[in-house]
Amino acid sequence: MMIRAVTSPVPPSCDGRGEDGVGGKRSRTNKKDHPLNGFEELGLSTPLLDALEASGYENPTPVQAQAIPPVLEGRDLIATAATGTGKTAAFVLPLLERLAAARAAGGRRVRPGTARILVLTPTRELAGQITDAVRRYGRHISPRTAVIVGGQKMGPQFAALRGGLDILVATPGRLIDHIERGSCRLDETQVLVLDEADQMLDLGFLPPIRRIAALLAEERQTLLFSATMPKAIRRLAGELLTQPAEVTIGEARSPAEAIEQRLVRMPQAEKRSYLVDLLKAEKAPRAIVFTRTKRGAERLHRQLERAGCRSAAIHGDKNQSQRQRALDAFRRGRVEILVATDVAARGIDVRDVTHVVNFDLPQTAESYVHRIGRTARAGKTGIAITLCDASESGLLSDIERLIGVHLSADGSTRPFEGGRESKGRGKGQAYGRGRRPRRQGRPARRRAA
Ligand code: AMP
Question: Residues 317-346: what's their mean pLDDT?
Fold first, then answer.
C-alpha cells in the first residue's frame, strides 16, 4: 500500500507548542477521500490517516469505531473490551486529533512541569507500549510525549517534564514521586485516561489514582478502559466520570471468542513434563507460560532451557532492562517461550502469540481473562491451556463462574451451572494421568456455550 504525502494540520506559524489545550471544538481540516475512509468517517484527518495507513491498518476495530466519536466530542467514556481489540488506538487517535486541532487553533505553550493529557497504566511495559503507539500514530503530529515509570533514572524524566508535555504516560507510583518532588503539576491536565483500570485496582493503585485525580483540572475529560468490569470499577467510574458514553465490545466478562480454552487436570508434579511435551509437539509455538510466583517463573525457565525449549523469564525480581531484553527476545522470535508472572505480563502486546499456558492458576479470576487475552490479538486465533491440580479447584471454579462456562480438555465449553465444584475428586477420575498432548493444527474457534 502506498504511503501518501503528508499534509500537516499545523500552520507554519504555530510549531505545535502554542495552544490552550485539547478542549474546545475540533476543526475538520483536510477533509478528503482517503483510502482509509472507515477511519476518516469517524472524524480523523490526514496526518493520522497517513500514519494508520503506514501501520497497515485498513478499518477501525469495533472498539475504535464506537469510542473515537464520543472522545472526539470531548465526552467522558467508560469502555469494556477484551484485550487485543485495539483499545490503545481507540483513545490515542481521537486525543491526537484534538491535539492537532487545538494546535491549529493557536494558543499558549504548555507550561514546564505540566502535561495536557495524562495516561495512567498499571505497568511499565504497558506504559512503554502506549508511548510507542502515540509516537507511531502521531508521527506527523509530533506530540511532546514522555513515559514516567519506576525502575528508570529520574534525570531524563526531570528533563522531559521541564519541557512541558502534550501526553504524559505514567505508572501511578513514579508519577506521585514526581508530584511530591515538585517536578510535575497536574492542574493544567485536561484529559485523564485510565487504561487497564481493573488491573490498576488489583495492584492496589486505587489510593494513588484518587490522589492523582484530585490534582487534575476540574473541567476535564476522563476515559476509563478496562477488560473486565467488576463492581469496584463501576464505583471508580461513578467517582471520576461525568455522564460517560459507554462502549462494551462483546460480552464484558467473557474472553475473546477466538480463543480455544482447554483445561487439563493433573498433579502439580506432572505439569513440567506435560508442558515440555506440549511445546515440543507444537510447530513453532510462541507461548506465554504463566506461573504464580517469581521463583516459580525462574525455576521453570531454567527447566525449560535444560529440556531444550528456548525461553526467557519476566517477573518482578528482574530490573527494567532485563525485562525489556526478555520481552524483545520473545517479540523477535529469539526465544519461543516467555515464562511470566501476572504483574510482569500485564498489557504485553506481542503479535502472534499462539498459546497461553496457565502453569499455575491465577489468584484472581479476572487475571485469567487478562492472561489468555495475550493470545488471539488483532483478529488472530489462539489456544489457552490451563493446567489445574486438585488444590486449584476452587480457583478454577471462580474463573468458570466469571466467564460463565465450564472448561474441558477438548476445548468445548458448557454453561456454568453455579455453586462450587467438589474439591474431593477421586484421583483417577479427575486427572488425565499419562495423557500426552497431541500435535495441534490450527486452533478451532471456541464452541458456543
Ligand atoms: P491493543 O488492544 O491496543 O493492545 O491492540 C492490539 C493490536 O492490534 C496491536 O498490535 C495494534 O497494533 C493492532 N491494531 C489496533 N488497531 C488496529 C486496526 N484498526 N487494524 C489492525 N490492527 C490494529
Answer: 85
pLDDT more than 70, % of the chain:
80
How many angstroms is it from 422 CA to the middle of ligand 1? 41
Among 39, 48, 61, the mutation site with the greatest number of ligand 1 atoms within 8 A of its Cβ is 61
Q: Residue ranges of the alpha helices (H) in 197-260? A: 197-202, 206-215, 231-240
CA 200, CA 240: separation in Å to the nearest integer? Answer: 15
Q: Is the CB of 401 under 6 A from ligand 1?
A: no
Structural domain includes residue 433:
no
Q: Considering the domain boundaries, does residue 36 fall inside one?
A: yes
CA of 57 to the centre of ligand 1 (A): 8
Q: Cell numbers of 34, please?
A: 482517503
Residue with the smallest CA separation from ligand 1 atom 8 is: 378
Q: What is the CATH number of the domain that holds 159?
A: 3.40.50.300
Number of folded domains that form the chain: 2
Model pTM greater than 0.70?
Answer: no
The confidence score (pLDDT) of residue 345 equals 65
Nearest atom in ligand 1 to 39's CA: 19
Do 55 and 194 share a domain, yes or no?
Answer: yes
Cα torsion for 260, 265, 266, 271, to the nearest 10°?
Answer: 20
